[in-house]
Amino acid sequence: GPSGCGKSTLLKAVAGFMPIAAGAMELEGRRIARPGPDRVVVFQEFDQLLPWKTVLANVVYPLRVARGLPAPRARETAESFLAMVGLDRFAASYPHQLSGGMKQRVAIARALALDPRMLLMDEPFASLDALTRHKLREELLAIWEATRKTLLFVTHSIEEAVLLADRVVVLKGRPAKVHEVVQVDLPRPRNRAT
Asked: What confidence tens digit (pLDDT) does each residue in 152-172 have?
């Protein structure tokens, strides 16, 4: 949908950060009324990480606080997800030492490590250069193949929507209304060539 139509607002409502004006939202039969560990958001901004913590500590922290994992188990889980996003060699680095794309991969690893039912992504690649955006799209496809997590992904890019999605919801107007729902029947695994 166009800028300002409410894509990010919808995502924030699904996350439980904003109340809805009418109707109801449910996830697996349970009403969504507030934030919860079953839904984790990755935003487009690069400042999602705690700057005083290492990459590893940024992934460990919510595992300890939100999931209550003991330190050794949290560290093991964090290390495996950092390896999944190709950042295990940067575990001791701090956010200011990383590129924008690397910070996004840490945010994705942290979100996936929490094992949410749904991963909500608000234009997470929009601020990146074309090459990094392409690489992260491919990595997200590989991560999805490995985890099969439900993703709700906000994007302006038709190419990105078709590449990543099984179903594209096109919004129109302000406030937005569903203009069309398009099933993407391309086989998986996908890449730009397909």
From this structure: 999 888 888 999 999 999 998
